[in-house]
Design goal:
The complex is a heterodimer of chains A (117) and B (113). In chain A, strands 2, 4, 5, 6, 9, 10 and 11 form a seven-stranded mixed β-sheet that branches. In chain A, strands 1-3-8-7 form a four-stranded antiparallel β-sheet, with no helix packed on it. Chain A has strands at residues 4-7, 10-13, 19-25, 32-38, 44-51, 57-58, 67-73, 76-81, 90-97, 106-108, 112-116. Chain A contains no helices and eleven strands. Helices cover 0% and strands 52% of the residues of chain A. Chain B contains no helices and eleven strands. Chain B has strands at 4-7, 10-14, 19-25, 33-38, 45-50, 56-59, 62-67, 72-77, 86-92, 102-103, 107-112. Chain B is mainly β. In chain B, 0% of the residues lie in helices and 52% in strands. The A-B interface holds A 4, 6, 32, 34, 41-46, 49, 91, 93, 95, 97, 103-111, 113 and B 32, 34, 36, 41-46, 49, 89, 93, 95-98, 100-106, 108.
């Protein structure tokens, strides 16, 4: 089956620093990737849709200057949390869609736990 | 409307019993309805999905029932096992899943021996 990886799986950083999270589709090409944020005991909230070679589309209320998304290739999208603060601590999950699959199914990564001190 | 409503919030079922989780949506443009299973500290994994042209889909112990007129769909887990204990999310999407997925609020299932 299609596999999506995320790196790192956990990161702890000081307030004010920037953190980069990578999302890779390992065995398929993905023109579209999605970034979600999940707070404890809550559902996944879509942050942005990342399209290869173009600017990401952000959901309402998500600061695009704070959450920088780069989808530079068909297998890699990155999310950079700039000037992170404790309220940015969360579980960040990406998903990717196989561009040639007929089902439209999205495959999710294992998530990245961000803790900002 | 983008909302997908899910109930119950939590569910306790005895081993061997049937777990039932219900969802409702408002936007009739949705045409792809997946269910995801998520274990603590992990990303969600697709369990089963249905499109509105069928009323039921079964895969092993998992069955989705879909009522297009009522805009409701449900997940039935037959012969529930302790290993099924997880959080389950219903979801909805457009264009056969090619568009963004809107998640329900989640149901924490606990299967007790």
């Amino acid at each position: 089956g299609a596999v999506v990886s995320q790196h790192p799986s956990r990161v702890i950083c000081k307030s004010g620093t920037s953190v980069k999270i990578e999302c890779r589709s390992l065995d398929f090409q993905a023109t579209t990737m999605f970034w979600y944020r999940q707070f404890p005991k809550q559902s996944l909230m879509l942050m942005a849709t990342s399209n290869e070679g173009s600017k990401a589309t952000y959901e309402q209320g998500v600061e695009k200057d704070k959450f920088l998304i780069n989808h530079a290739s068909l297998t890699l999208s990155t999310l950079t949390v700039t000037s992170a603060h404790p309220e940015d601590s969360s579980f960040y999950i990406c998903s990717a869609r196989d561009q040639i699959a007929l089902s439209g199914e999205q495959f999710f990564g294992p998530g990245t736990r961000l803790t900002v001190l | 409307q983008q909302q997908v409503k899910q109930s119950p919030q939590s569910l306790i079922v005895q081993k061997g019993g049937i777990s039932i989780i219900n969802c409702a949506y408002e936007n009739t443009a949705f045409d792809y309805f997946p269910w995801y299973q998520q274990f603590p500290g992990k990303g969600p994994a697709l369990l089963i999905a249905i499109r509105p042209d069928v009323s039921e889909k079964k895969e092993g112990r998992f069955t989705i029932s879909f009522n297009k007129s009522a805009k409701q769909f449900s997940l039935h887990i037959m012969d529930s096992q302790p290993g099924d204990s997880a959080t389950y999310f219903c979801a909805a999407s457009y264009s056969g899943g090619y568009q963004k997925v809107t998640f329900g609020t989640g149901t924490k299932l606990q299967v007790i021996p």
